[in-house]
C-alpha cells in the first residue's frame, strides 16, 4: 500500500513517531522544540492511540530538569518514555542522562539542536547543546532534513530497544525543526514492523516493581566504582551493529537506504567535507554541481555520532582522498579543535595505526566552524571550503559565513555562486510579525504540496519577538525533491505585505529578472508608483518585473479582520502566480480557513471567506513606466544624530544587513549600550492617536496603559513654546503640582504600534459627539511627518525634576519621562506598562535581573533595547542570566550592592576621622545618615555625593582612593527581579522561594500572563482551571497556583496582587514594595495575545478578571502588623459578575465550549467555585483582627 505524502515540518515528523511509539511523554516548553510537545499533547487530548492501541500519557513538568527526572522515573517503572528539548533545557537534563545511560535504559530524546547562551542568548540552531552531551554515554543520531527526522526517529526507537543504549536523536533547530517539506509519512504498520514487541516486553520486565523487588541507584565506594563503570564497554561496539541492522531493516520497508556514515560524491574524490545536520544537504548540492564540472570532490555525512563509527568512517572515505575539511556547528574555545574535527583526526590516526586506512598517506585535515546561531550556510560557502582545500597549505581552524577580522580566520566566498534550481519555483513574502503572513504561507505550501504532485519546501525567518518585526517566508516547489536548507536569493515571486518596508529593506535585490512583485499598499494603482522610493522603481524597471498592488489593509479593516491581511495576500498570490487552477486554490484556501479558524467560531470563518472573495476584486496590475520618476529616496536606517555605535552596528542590523557586520564591530563580552530603541523608528502603525486638548482631563490613563511609551504627557513653562511647530498642541496644566505650566500629550508616530489602547481607555468624551474623545485613532501616513516633528520638539522640552512631582499619584507618575520605551512587544501588550511604570518610579537607580521570556526578548533582543536613560545619563542597568535562576541572579546583585554600600560607608566613617577631611565632616555625616526613602531624598543625596566625589578625586588619602570607585553606592540602589509566570511559578520557583525567605531587600515583579507567552502559549502552574493552552489542549484541570498566598506564609514578605484596571493601586503597590526593607513580590496581571482577546480592549478583560473574583487585588505589608494592623488590605470588592462572564470573553476559555461543551461546563463550574472560594478566603484573612 502506498504511503501518504504529507507536508509537515521537522518537529511534526518527530512527534508523529514519538507519540506512536511511547506510552509516557514528559515535556517542558523550550524553543524550538516546544511544537513536538504541543503536537503530542493535542494527539492525546484527541484520544489518538499509539501502535499498541493505548493513548500515551502526556505530562508537563516545571522544568527540563523535572521532565528528565520524570522520564527517568517512568523508564525505571517500565514505561516506554520520551521527551523533547533543546539548548539550556537539554543541559538541565544531563545529570539524568548520565544515570539513564549508566543503567542501560532504552529511550529516545528528540532534540531540535539550538545554541547555548554564552555572551548572549540565541533561540536559533547549532550543535552546542548536543555536543555538551557527548560524554553522557548516549548514542547520538543526527537527521539532516524533515524526511530523515521521521525516519531516524523510528530507527532510533528500534535501536534503543535492541541495544539498551539511550538515543539522543537531534536535528537542526529551526532550519530542520521548522522547515516544512513534502515527505512520505511512516504508517503504524511500518512502526510495528520496526519495533520488536519482544524487546518491548524485555524493557517492561526490567521495571521496578514490588512484585519483583530489586535495588538500583546505589552509592559505590572506591573499591568497585571503577569496575562498575567499565561494565558497559561491550554495549557500544554492539550498538554500531544494531544501528546498521535497523537501517537495513528500514530500507527493506521503505526503500530509503541509510548508513551511520554515508559518502556522496566522486568515486575518485581528492577533497572531502565531513559534516552533520542540515548543512550536509547544502554540501551535497554543491558536490553535485562541482562534480558535474569535473571537480573531484565528495561529502561524508556523519549520521551516527556516538558511538563514533570509526570502521564505517574510514571505509566510506575514498582511497583517493588527500585533503579533508571537517565542519562543526559549534565552538569550543580553548580546545585544539571542535568535536567532530577532533574525532575525525583521531579516527584517521587510529585507523592508520591499525592498518585499516585505505589511503596512501595521512591526509591533510583541517577544521572549520559554520552556522552558529542559525547563521546561513549556502552552496557558496560550501564551495569556499572546497576551494580552501585546493591550497597547498589550507587554512585550518577557520570560520565560514562571516567576516572574522580580528584574527583573520574567515574564508572568503563568492555569494553569487548558486547551484542550479531548474524546474523549481521560488517565492518570498515579507510580512510583519502577527499579521498572519507566516501562517498563511504555511497553509499555502501545504495546499501546493497536498493538491499537486509537486515537492514543496517552506522556511520562515523571524527574530525572537512574537510581533511587530519583519518576517520573511521562503517557499520553493517543483517536480523534484527539494533539499536546499538555505534561504532564497533569486526569487520568481516577491510579495511585500507592509508598504513601509519599501523605505527600510532592499527586498527586490533578491528578485529574479522577469519575476513578479506584489505589494500591499494604501494607495490606488494610479498613485502607488509615485509613492515608492526611486531605488525600488529602478529595480522594478531594471529587472523587468511584473508589478501588482492591493490595499489589503483597507480591505481587512472593512471586513473586520483588523491587521490580519494574511488571507487577502494569500489569495492574491494564488491568483497572480497561477500555481494552481484558481478554483482549486480558492477551495483549498477556504478549507484551510475552516481548519485554522474553526475554533474561533463561524463568524470569523465567514469573515475570512469574504476576504478571499473580495481580494480577487481588488488585485490590480500596475503599468510600469519606462523611467524612475520618484522624488522619494530610501532614508538611512537611523538618524545621523545617532551615536557612533548605533550608526556602525545597530543601523546595519535594523536594515537587515547584520550578516555583513565584521567580528571586530561586535562587543566582545556581550555588553551593549542602552537607549537605542529610539533610533529604530519601525513605523508600523496604521492608525495613531490624535489629541483634542480641549477635551482632555489630564488623567494620565492613556500614558499609563500605552505599552510602548509612544504617547506621553509633559508639563513645562509656557515660554518654551517659542519656535514650536505650527501643529504642536498644548493646553494649560490642571494637575496641582504643575499648575501655571503648559501641558502636552504627544504621540511618537513612528514608534507607536497603533494598538489603540490609549484612545479606547480614554475617559474624556465629547458630550455633543459621543464618537469623539480626547484621543481618536486616525490614519497615520498623512500625520507622520507632522507628528514626528512635534515629537522631536516635545523631547527637546526639559523633563521635570521627579523630586518635584507627586509620584504616588497616577498623574504625577505619568509626568515622569519613561525610560523603558518603544519595545518590540506585541501591540497592546499587558506586560510592558508595568515595566514602564517601574522605569518612571525607580529607573534612575534600578538594577534589573530579567528572566528569559517575553520580557527579556522585547527588553534585550537585538538590534535595539527599550531600556533607556534620563537626561543626566542615569537609567536601569539590565541583565539576563537564565530562565531558571533569575531570582538568585538578582539576589546576587543585591549582595554585591549591599557589600559595596557597606564598604563605602565604612570608608566614609574613616574619612570622618581623618584630619585632612575635618572641614567636610558635616557633609560626610549627612551622607551616611541620609534619608533616601523618596525621590527627593535620593536626588538630594546625589548632590551630596557629587560634592564628595570632587573632594576625594585628588586626595592622596588611601580611604579616599578606595572610596572613589564606590562612591555612587552611597546612593540607594533598587534591585528588581523581573519575569513571567513560567519563571516564577515553575522553573524558577525554588530560587524565588529562597530569595523571599532570605529577608534581603529584593523586589520581585511577576508579569503574570497565566501562560508561557514567549514559547508559544503553553500552560504553567499559573494557568487557570478550565483555560485551554498548549500542553493543556483539553482545558487545564487543576486550579491556578496561589503564589501570593504562599509568599505571605513567611509573614515578612511584602506581597501585592495588581492589575492595570486599577492604576492607582498599581502605583501604590510599586511604591510600597520598593520602600519595604525586605523582599517584596508584586504579581501583576498581564493580558496577552495567548488569551485570544482583542488587545485594544485588554484593560476591559482585566476589569472583568477582577470583578469576577478571579484576580483579587490586595497588598500584604508586614510593616502594618508591627503597628497592630492587619497586614492584608483587600483592594477589590466582592465579585460582581459571574466567573463565566469574564472567562467566555476570551478564546482560551471559549474554544473548549465549542469543541467539548460537556467538559467546558464541568470545568467552568469548578473554576467558578475556585474563584469564589479564593476570594472568600482572602476576605476572611483581610477581616482578621490584629490589634490584640
UniProtKB/TrEMBL annotation:
Species, as recorded: Geomonas limicola
GO BP annotation list: electron transport chain; response to oxidative stress
Protein name: Pyruvate:ferredoxin oxidoreductase
Chain positions recorded as [4Fe-4S] cluster 1 binding sites: 696, 699, 702, 762
All residue ranges annotated as the 4Fe-4S ferredoxin-type domain in the record: 687-716, 743-773
SUPFAM superfamilies: 4Fe-4S ferredoxins, Pyruvate-ferredoxin oxidoreductase, PFOR, domain III, Thiamin diphosphate-binding fold (THDP-binding), TK C-terminal domain-like
Binding site residues for thiamine diphosphate: 64, 831, 854, 980-983, 1009-1014
Cofactor note: Binds 3 [4Fe-4S] clusters per subunit.
CDD domains: TPP_PFOR_PNO, TPP_PYR_PFOR_IOR-alpha_like
Residues annotated as binding pyruvate: 31, 114
Keywords noted in UniProt: 4Fe-4S, Electron transport, Iron, Iron-sulfur, Metal-binding, Oxidoreductase, Pyruvate, Transport
Residues the record marks as site: Important for catalytic activity: 31, 64, 114, 1014
Phylogenetic lineage: Bacteria, Pseudomonadati, Thermodesulfobacteriota, Desulfuromonadia, Geobacterales
SMART domains found in the cross-reference section: EKR
One protein family per Pfam: TPP_enzyme_C
Amino-acid positions noted as binding [4Fe-4S] cluster 2 in the UniProt annotation, renumbered to this chain: 706, 752, 755, 758
Binding site for [4Fe-4S] cluster 3: 826, 829, 854, 1088
Known catalytic reactions: 2 oxidized [2Fe-2S]-[ferredoxin] + pyruvate + CoA = 2 reduced [2Fe-2S]-[ferredoxin] + acetyl-CoA + CO2 + H(+)
Keyword ATP-binding: no
Family in the record: Belongs to the pyruvate:ferredoxin/flavodoxin oxidoreductase family.
GO molecular function, one term: pyruvate synthase activity
EC id: 1.2.7.1
Database matches in InterPro entries: 4Fe4S_Fe-S-bd (IPR017896), 4Fe4S_Fe_S_CS (IPR017900), PFOR_II (IPR033412), Pyruvate:ferred/Flavod_OxRd (IPR050722), Pyrv-flavodox_OxR_EKR_sf (IPR037112), Pyrv-flavodox_OxRtase_EKR (IPR019456), Pyrv/ketoisovalerate_OxRed_cat (IPR019752), Pyrv_Fd/Flavodoxin_OxRdtase_N (IPR002880)
The organism's place on the tree of life at top rank: Bacteria
